[in-house]
Amino acid sequence: xxxxxxxxxxxxxxxxxKANTIYNLIKIPNLEIYNIDTKNKLRYVxxxxxxxxxxxxxxxxxxxxxxxxxxxxxxxxINKNLNRYSSNFxxxxxxxxxVLCENLSIGEIKTAGVPDNIMRTLILDIKxxxxxxxxxxxxxxxxxxxxxxxxxxxxxxxxNFNKKDFEYIKCSTCDNKWNLAIYPETAxxxxxxxxxxxSEDMAEVFSHLMFYENENNSDDPILNKKIKFIKENISxxxxxxxx
Amino acid sequence: xxxxxxxxxxxxxxxxxxxxxxxxxxMFFIVIKNxxxxxxNYNPKEIQxxxxxxxxxxxxxxxxxxxxLYPNVSPNSVERFKTLIRSGAYDDVAFHRVIExxxxxAGDLEFGKRENLNYGKVGTGKSGxxxxxxxxxxxxxxxxxxxxxxxxxxxxxxxxxFFIILEDEPLFEGEYTPLGKVLYGIEVLEKVKFIHKLExxxxxxxxxxxxxxxx
Lengths: 243, 215
Prior knowledge:
The complex is a heterodimer. Chain A has 2 domains: 13-128, no CATH class; 149-243, no CATH class. The longest helix of chain A has 17 residues, at 221-237. Chain A is an alpha+beta fold. In chain A, strand 1 (31-35) and strand 2 form a beta hairpin. In chain A, strands 1, 2, 3, 4, 5, 6, 7 and 8 form an 8-stranded mixed β-sheet that branches. Chain A has 8 helices and 8 strands. By secondary structure, chain B is α+β, with helices and mostly antiparallel strands. Chain B folds into 2 domains: 6-35; 44-212, Cyclophilin. Helix content of chain B is 19%, strand content 18%. Chain B contains 3 helices and 8 strands; from the N terminus they run αββαβββββαβ. Chain B has an 8-stranded antiparallel β-sheet. In chain B, a hairpin with a 3-residue loop joins strand 3 and strand 4. The chains are: A alpha+beta, B alpha+beta. The interface between A and B is medium-sized, with 20 and 19 residues.
């Protein structure tokens, strides 16, 4: 017992101080403030050095620091898109910190963002695919919404919208269905990536609604049901929310 | 025959220099050892307060820290804080987490007491009164001297531990429940023992007593 205590005390005393306020708040090292004076109270921070999170190799998150020029350029785009969410809505969905970095990956698989509604954080890869970058921002925001309100976004209800012979794959990275280009003929799905999981499908519908502001009406009956589902449940969270 | 050798002027200068250096070094170490030497100790009885019922006095090794509590900002949390202060719960409790020129934290009533300080657990202790709901206020500005309730990384886990910041911390705004602000004696807190690059302080300084002014 004494040995255990001694080791514990030694460990505590040799653990270097991470006197970084951001680290204490969101448990991500090597970050600095980019802008915290925003109208919807989102706090933007950026990586000053590469960081890695987690011990499990398959779930290890890593991201790298960016040059100031890229950061300034992408911040404008991200800020423009995220400004569409009110502070009240962001508070309800538990989103407060946006981490800006590049070459973001989970378990060595590249990703646009890593949402964490418990830590109220969304890590964004600012160098993610230029073509779909803005839509991907809203896609990732939806994952925060979904994680915060699981009860509103029931996956079984959602699966019933699809044709009976359709099945999602088991996880979003279990296949190569990663194409984010919008189908000319939707047939129940906006993109190939929508077919990966119910959750990704919902996020794709949400991001489509947010990005193509004036094209919310679809001739696709399945997509219309999905759009209605998303809109109704988002309004349960905040009835003032505007797509 | 032994010839007496006269001390040259330059040798005298060196001798005087060495003597002065010795005196200076001695004085320097006396001053260094007494970290409280130039710290003003405020007597709360000599100061007029607008809201004396909300004034708390934290007595430390280097003197008093006079804090005004804000029940209008965080009613439930300030009520809890006052209850613990009035019961003497904070007396002899360690400043267990001290970050130089940034923050000091105390109030672990379970593992931070002088008589049974537990280095392995200090910072995780509770008061026994249960956790509080966070009373975050986006409009409260965390300026130097602001006092807040500490919590785990999750909201609504506040209890007895509190912190006082030694520099402005805009990132704390809307994150931590505000309790009040130091009116006098922030310099006393700047003398609380810290260890560079260590978060938990070995052999820390302690709160001598923490009382409400009207107690």
